């Protein structure tokens, strides 16, 4: 929750090149698959097989139901009929990765975001949280085998923004153009979400999402030289995060802050989502906002009176929020605190699940994944999204006056940006334990920032950013639209693919997965 900026060497480059965006190639036609027990749920979408196998269907009808009941219990491969949900073109199979297996480690699972049942949440002890990240790490260390992530990253992922806009200098440079552009794109995402979900009357979510209370610890992003710019970016980022939660049908979001100005920015973010504009004239109580309904989603705000500190004396807002919610769920808080958390109607009985996230974290989740995780977290697992890393790129920076040393050029290895449709049948399949970006040495900051840092010498952008060359670049239709690595801040990668599902990868003798081994269907 603190934004740290690296000193960067600024270099100019003339005449930015035109970016070419191409969709990935269509997969080659595959031979018909034989009917097998693991495909029994797909009979409805395989008419040829169904006709040929018609004499067997009566005999299999009882068996099919039994097989389905077994499949939905399998932790790493869950199959659901999704045609009732909108708007997925394929009946998608949701395959899950397991903590401690599939080359999945603690850093791969860190997204500052998780989703679990209230019952499981109440069994956690957050008193030992000495850093804001411990809301995830301390819990995962005790029960990492319960962590579940998706093999197809487009099923359940988040776009994490603040480090990205920090590298581009959105808060610190004298030129406000890049900050204005980011705010404008986030506001467009917010308005698009409101139009699709509320104005369009789209039915979203599941019984699990509607029974989920979202905990959103909040600290505003600060700009020392340009304070209003920090406020504007904070409001737009929070509103976009809220819009992404609205899109998946979360029942209630409680923003949990502390500073005296926080409540005004939170209220303006609520107004931006509800009205399409951040109304600066709205005022609010210094303690809390009354329960508010934005479309089908409830929102609220709580101000922590005396939050704990981290080991390095920063405000530990996540710890304060989680302890407050836990205290209220156990009935150990006063009525005012419980009403602020639960909305004052039917108390805490509605909220059977807890989702933790940050105010700069945009969620993307397919309906099929929401169903799969509803089953999984109901069994005591922890659902964790992949944390996609947006990357400074010429596509997002051209014409905004950003120094070219602060973004990737739209040429050579960085000239192709794959466009993936998260509402359709595109995929980004998990690449396993192969993390090429972290194999080329450390530079004192996150590996993907190395080429933007002063420690990396040379004018050739492809040499400076050699750690990024093995990764594909992508933009998500239905997301913010910013260019992202097909990878996370800790180097795990996914392989983009148009119109195909992710099969379990073929493993070699060292149990490491290379991108060429990732399977598609």
UniProtKB/TrEMBL annotation:
**Name this protein carries in UniProt:** Uncharacterized protein
Q: Where is this region: Disordered?
A: 1-32
For bias kind Basic and acidic residues, which ranges apply? Answer: 1-23
Can you tell me where the transmembrane regions are? Answer: 48-72
Keyword entries, A-Z: Membrane, Transmembrane, Transmembrane helix
Organism listed in the record = Odontella aurita
Output the superkingdom of the source species. Answer: Eukaryota
